[in-house]
Amino acid sequence: MTDPTALVTGATSGLGLAFARRLAADGLDLVLVARDVARLDRVAAELRTAYGRRVEVLPADLTDREQLRRVADRVGDRARPVDLLVNNAGFGLGRRFTDGALTDEERMVDLLIRAVLVLSHAAAAPMRDRGRGAILNVSSVSGFVVMGSYSAAKAWVTSFSEGLANELGPHGVQVTAVCPGFVHTEFHQRAGLRMSQMPRFGWLDADDVVDAALADVRRRRVVSVPSARYKTVVAVSRLAPRRLVRRVSGAISRSRTRG
What we know:
Layout: E1 5-9, H1 14-25, E2 29-34, H2 37-51, E3 55-59, H3 65-75, E4 84-87, H4 102-130, E5 133-138, H5 148-168, E6 173-178, E7 182-183, H6 187-191, E8 203-204, H7 206-218, E9 223-224, H8 228-239, H9 242-256
Parallel strand pairs: 1-2, 1-4, 2-3, 4-5, 5-6, 6-9, 7-8
Helix pairs in contact: 1-2, 1-7, 3-4, 4-5
């Protein structure tokens, strides 16, 4: 009997790398998906050496439909089952919606929404038929507030995960959306966001987010919000008048974006 296998997208940096390391340490074999072949190979070598796991690399740009299809084929391969799918790959845009190129917005939607949709679909039926498995979608606290197209995409991820959990839960398959706040990764730098004014207490550690997310998968929680402070943010955003949520979200968004 083979060891369980996890497939992680965006696996060479940030939360994706933290997930890959933790899962390897926990005894899972891995399929790592990212665009950068050199970084994929380095991470795979690190994990094989440190943890003695089987690590498969699958280079792909998930905004490209043909490359996404290849990854979906691997996810849905019943002869080589994926026991845990971690939909982590993503990026943000550090500018207002009206100031950027539509093509950039479309790429973000392809990655944050379409890739999650396609890969979850590929995983769902095989997991359902086996009566076990888990899909972990990396969403965001921003999905509960109002911060442009990224926020809207993450709101979709959380809602989609909740609906899929209803469908697959009775068949023994867990679906969880993890919704972190600000995490110390390369994400904000790559997006060109100004984060110097963010207070220290607002930041989360990537390993802590991964621990919380995987613990909530084991507890069969559908929405995972790491840390008490961000649980409070989510609770307030759900209860507060939407006009107030829009006003506060807009002020925070303006302080972080360029343009």
